[in-house]
Write a structure and sequence with these properties.
Blueprint lengths: L6 H28 L4 H10 L17 H12 L3 H21 L2 H13 L3 E5 L15 E5 L2 E12 L6 E12 L5 E9 L5 E3 L13 E12 L3 E2 L5 H37 L1 E2 L2 E2 L4 H29 L5 H26 L9 H9 L9 H11 L3
Parallel strand pairs: 1-4
Antiparallel strand pairs: 2-3, 3-7, 4-5, 5-8, 6-7, 9-10
């Protein structure tokens, strides 16, 4: 086994790392404090080709792979998670369903702008009353002639209300299966469609520079041709999308955890206490050593899951392990980094304050830690 990155992947990582430090870091705190979406940063990420990383060139992508996306997410999250989750959701949840399941016509219409970063897309899965129980979907879509009529609501949807949001793919009940279960399908709803309402942005604990809204559909009509993939395959579609997305979230979590190490090392060298830098004290050294160990092992976990995915091997269990472990250590490292910074760690001017606020959602979004444990146990035959 060789865990070293290829020259191409290493060059990408260094490029994104420089971008995060030189372009994102100087301005993101103000966006975070004001709860504003960083359009200029997104525009520059689009010019860098980050939104098209794992897509073929024929669709306007960069011809890379999913692992390249993960590397970019890790480096962005070392500085800020709002920017990282904007990219992750735009690719894994926004463009990927169109690429995986869309018709040639749908791909030609939507992918060029999504892969260039000119437009974003949301993934309408979670509902106010369902959470982890995605099978409990209540949003309904009825075929009326050559149109789908959609009624229902979605909650906590990322990239769904920006000025550049082009569409949201919505899971809805479209009928009943022979065994009596709900028939779930996925339908593309373009922004601005009558009956499609985007609520004001949430007041969130973290990810304050990312875009998150509740969506409602009131007799919202879209063409029958907006069905994404095969009718009745919506459940299978979003399971595949979430399996892949867990690797990306793991990479993001590793980035946050590593960012906590970066900031703690820097602070420990600068902060003086009792006549010397606090980094000279073993109590601080051991905390940071444990943080680095956790980030390193979590990185290996998501690298393994990504390698299995790209090799065409089963990766569901490994993706769940990576997401579970990485999100757990992200919370751990954020807590320890805050402790190392003392009172300054409680001040928003310090990055670790953002890291602490941003870390908890990683144990919840795109499958809670409890769901990851269920997936792992079932894959073991339990």
């Amino acid at each position: 086994m060789d865990f070293r990155l290829s020259e191409e992947h290493e060059a990408l990582r260094e490029s994104v790392r420089d971008f995060a430090r030189e372009t994102v870091a100087p301005v993101i705190a103000e966006h975070y404090e004001r709860h504003t979406f960083p359009y200029e940063i997104v525009r520059q990420m689009g010019k860098m080709g980050l939104f098209g990383l794992p897509f073929p060139e024929e669709h306007g992508g960069m011809g890379g792979d999913y692992f390249a996306l993960c590397l970019a997410l890790e480096e962005l999250a070392r500085v800020d998670s709002s920017v990282a989750i904007t990219l992750e959701a735009a690719v894994s949840l926004g463009a990927m369903p169109i690429y995986r399941f869309g018709t040639a016509e749908q791909q030609a219409r939507w992918l060029p702008k999504l892969l260039s970063g000119e437009a974003l897309a949301g993934f309408g899965l979670t509902e106010p009353g369902t959470g982890s129980d995605a099978g409990g979907t209540r949003t309904r879509a009825v075929l009326d002639g050559d149109e789908w009529v959609i009624n229902g609501s979605k909650a906590f949807i990322t990239n769904s209300g920006t000025d550049i949001t082009a569409l949201v793919t919505v899971t809805a009940v479209t009928g009943t299966n022979p065994d009596g279960s709900k028939e779930l399908s996925t339908i593309i709803v373009p922004s601005g469609t009558p009956g499609f309402t985007v609520a004001p942005g949430y007041s969130k604990v973290g990810w304050n520079a990312s875009d998150t809204h509740e969506l409602t559909f009131d007799d919202c009509r879209v063409p029958a041709g907006n069905l994404l993939g095969e009718r009745g395959r919506g459940f299978a579609q979003f399971l595949r999308i979430l399996d892949e997305g867990r690797i990306a979230i793991a990479a993001l979590a590793v980035g946050l955890a590593q960012g906590c190490v970066d900031e703690s090392v820097k602070y420990a060298k600068e902060r003086q206490a009792f006549g010397q830098p606090i980094g000279n004290y073993q109590a601080i050294q051991f905390k940071i050593a444990d943080m680095e160990s956790k980030a390193h092992t979590a990185r290996l976990a998501y690298h393994d899951a990504a390698a299995r995915m790209l090799a065409g091997e089963p990766f569901k269990r490994q993706a769940a392990i990576a997401k579970l472990h990485a999100s757990t250590i992200a919370v751990d490292n954020a807590r320890e980094a805050t402790q190392i910074h003392g009172g300054y760690g409680f001040m928003n001017e310090y990055p670790v304050a953002r890291f602490w606020r941003d870390s908890k959602i990683l144990e919840i979004g795109e499958g809670t830690s409890e769901v990851q444990r269920m997936i792992i146990a079932r894959d073991l035959g339990l």
